[in-house]
Amino acid sequence: MNVPIEPKAETQAIRGGSVPIIDLASIDLTRIVGDKNEIEAWIPHRGRMSLLDGVVWVAPDKTAGVAVKRVGHDEFWVDGHFPGKPLFPGVLQVEAAAQLACYLFVTRRGEPATPAFLRIEQCSFRSMVLPGDTFYLLCREVKYQKRRFISDIQGVVDNRVTFDARISGMVMERDLGRLA
Quick check: 125 and 164 in contact, CB under 8 A? Predict the structure, then answer.
């Protein structure tokens, strides 16, 4: 399936703002093309820090993708962020999208790796993410090199952009190795 990705002029803002950077209406959001096992085969995140439930779409050239996280009522942060009014922490929203960016980067490279993040730029939080929400992560490549990448990322719930940012990362000089 070829999903239109809006072209971006150099003079345009870094991110899409309140408009998703990928047209979700043309993607089957119920179809998982990469489950947790597939994701873990490529990136090292495990346990509580493995934040993606599945990848639902990847562009044929691996320059863009969409993943899903079902935000649970029993997650480690619910009781304390905030008591009586749980709100999915913004830093975890960004981390979830960053994991999708890592997945796209390393699958494009063709070998598992441990990318480390160098920068998060112009991050804006626009809407809340609550337990029970189906949270979609969007990623679009801005720049790709063998060891480095820059990506625009967003979170979306019910067609509302919850956050957007630009991140950059690179493969660590000494890879941490793979977890069994």
Answer: no
Helix boundaries (H) for the chain: 36-42, 90-109
Nearest to 164, CA basis, from 11, 13, 5? 13
45 is catalytic: no
Q: Write out pLDDT tens, residues 142-172.
A: 999 999 999 999 999 999 999 999 999 999 8
Beta partners for residue 116, in sequence order = 170
Catalytic residue, from 8, 36, 62, 81: name it.
Answer: 81
pTM above 0.85, yes or no: yes
Q: Express each pLDDT in 36-74 by its tens digit.
A: 999 999 999 999 999 999 999 999 999 999 999 999 999
**Ramachandran area for residue 94 (φ above 0: left; ψ -120 to 50: alpha; else beta):** alpha
Q: What residues pair up with 167 in beta bridges, in sequence order?
A: 120, 151
Q: Which residues contact 118 (CB under 8 A, 6 or more apart)?
A: 148, 168, 169, 170
Within 10 angstroms of residue 26's Cβ, the number of other Cβ atoms is: 11
Task: Find where tokens 């691996």 sit.
Answer: 62
Domains present along the chain, CATH in parentheses: 31-166 (3.10.129.10)
